[in-house]
Amino acid sequence: MSERKVLNKYYPPDFDPSKIPKLKLPKDRQYVVRLMAPFNMRCKTCGEYIYKGKKFNARKETVQNELYMGLPIFRFYIKCTRCLAEITFKTDPENTDYAMEHGATRNFQAEKLLEEEEKKIIKDREEEELNNPMKVLENRTRDSKMEMEVLENLQELKELNQRQASVDFEGMLGTYKVLEQREREREKEEDERETQEMLERALVKRLRDSDSDSDQESESCSSRPKKPSIDRPTDILTTDKLTDTQGPSVGTLRKPKVASWERSVGGLGGGGALGSLVVRKKPSIPKQGTPVPPAGPNTQTVLKTVISAATLTTETAKPVTTQNGSSSLSLLGAYSDSNDSNDSE
């Protein structure tokens, strides 16, 4: 099976390329090419306008006996889109353009013709001055004379306009400059005045805020009620004496912070709920014939124990809820036991 894409062809050993017959084609043969119109043109037959960029199926041929610096020149044949008249144009490598040849006229060509005419005049002048120095001098003199005339005519026109004109341009410009300067000064003054007003408003606002704050503080101090100092008989058990630095005889009492359970229960000596729980022992009456013991160290010991128990109760005792729901102190039993022990002694 042969290859799908054949890159090399088989040449037999006895192959002679000179035996292949050559195809004889005329030199002025034509090719069909697709091109666009290189410029705007108008048909001479029907007057139809053909604009630049319109596409045609044209016939192309090489112009015989025409070369530009060894470059061949090509001719193109197109047909009018309306009357089908034949229009021809060819390449112009000298001007890098196309030249209209037959069947239509090129539009918008006046500027191009003027430029070509100016180039032709300059070229003729340069060729004339090349070998004739007197001609160069004459041309320079004529150019300078023409330039002086142009300047004189321009000056005359300016003077004529100034005489006929009733507007003082210099004065108008000066007035405009003065007005512009005044406007700048006015804007600057307005900016400074606005800045000063903003600073004053900010200062007044600060003063008002400080006055309102001081008034609120004074009103709050005056409206705050003073708590009356009530001295209770049991406060001496929960306060400590503090000696003042001014003298040993002057003393002040500092009240410590009272717990919430102490506020509700109270001390031992008070008339609150705790007072009803404390049972005071009635003094025993000695029987007849029983000697009364004198007041000795045992009695003093009992008093000290009572005072220490009372102090300990107020400082460290905590409320205990009983089965009946009433609150009592956890050290009551210890206090009664200590009294019984002292009595037994």
From TrEMBL:
Keywords: Coiled coil, Metal-binding, mRNA processing, mRNA splicing, Nucleus, Spliceosome, Zinc
Keyword Coiled coil: yes
Gene Ontology CC entries for this record: U2-type catalytic step 1 spliceosome
Regions crossing the membrane: none
Residue numbers binding Zn(2+): 43, 46, 80, 83
Coiled coil stretches, renumbered: 107-154
Pfam families associated with the record: Saf4_Yju2
InterPro entries assigned: Saf4/Yju2, Yju2
Disordered: annotated span: 205-258, 318-345
One function term, GO molecular function aspect: metal ion binding
GO biological process, one term: generation of catalytic spliceosome for first transesterification step
Compartments where found: Nucleus
Reported function: Part of the spliceosome which catalyzes two sequential transesterification reactions, first the excision of the non-coding intron from pre-mRNA and then the ligation of the coding exons to form the mature mRNA. Plays a role in stabilizing the structure of the spliceosome catalytic core and docking of the branch helix into the active site, producing 5'-exon and lariat intron-3'-intermediates. May protect cells from TP53-dependent apoptosis upon dsDNA break damage through association with PRP19-CD5L complex.
Family: Belongs to the CWC16 family. YJU2 subfamily.
Oligomer status and interactors: Component of the spliceosome. Present in the activated B complex, the catalytically activated B* complex which catalyzes the branching, the catalytic step 1 C complex catalyzing the exon ligation, and the postcatalytic P complex containing the ligated exons (mRNA) and the excised lariat intron.
Protein name: Splicing factor YJU2
Annotated source species: Esox lucius
Record gene name: YJU2
